[in-house]
Here is the input.
Amino acid sequence: MTSTPVNTPVAPRKRVPKTAVVLRTAPLTPQMLRVVFTGEDLLRLPDLTFTDHYIKILFPPAAADYSWPFDPEQVKRGRPAEQWPVTRTYTIRSYDRVANEMAVDFVIHGDEGLAGPWAARAQPGDAIGFFGPGGAFAPDPVADGHLLVGDEAAIPAIAATLERLPSQAHAEVFLEVAGPGHQQPLPMTRDTTVHWVHRAGTGLGYGQALSAAVRGAELPPGRLQLFVHGNADMVRDLRRFFFADRHLDRRSASISGYWRSGQTEDRWQATKAEFNRLMEAEESAAG
Here is the structure.
């Protein structure tokens, strides 16, 4: 007689954070700072096949009496929720495996938030913990054209995408920044046009001028690959424009809100699924 196997639940594997050590920092614009990391754990990173690879950096909350290194699960077991570490998501701008250097670009808004102030104070030898990398997007080398749209938060992924495009690829890039002094050099194919959209003096909120610029532009012809990331309300408006109004192919699109005005990353991640559900319902109702 054989016994019937019992399906027992399998405990989820514990996520083990990696360590990255600051090697140097370099300002890119008045509000963007590049931090270059190194460290033994980086050598174990997988090949970065996507151009939107990201890491989730672990930060103790403000006024916490602990710093990296720490075990996030142990902290959660021994401390109240308000003292638990939080994560902030950042795109890997580049990783040089030979030099073992990983570049991450931080948007700085003075003393606001956790990640920006940390990056502004970072010194060689400082260390952070992170989970990842994740990622899902890579440019299609046979697409007829590429439309890349984003605000400051999306510039690293868009720049990495431009580096990966074939030299003959046609790309239209729309980027919103505060003003002319916040533009930065980007890698370019022979057929790349970059449209810088400035918020300063418009009286508009994040993403509104960018959305208007894209709506008023002539889209590249043929089979178009889309990459649209940044402020969630901008993303919602352009998703409706692309899918409900222009009937573009969703299968050739990567569109997602990286953040939302007035919300911390924790709050945005907690509400993002419902936001996406309502956004998709609006698109369906619009045809």
User: Anything to note?
Assistant: The mean pLDDT is 92.
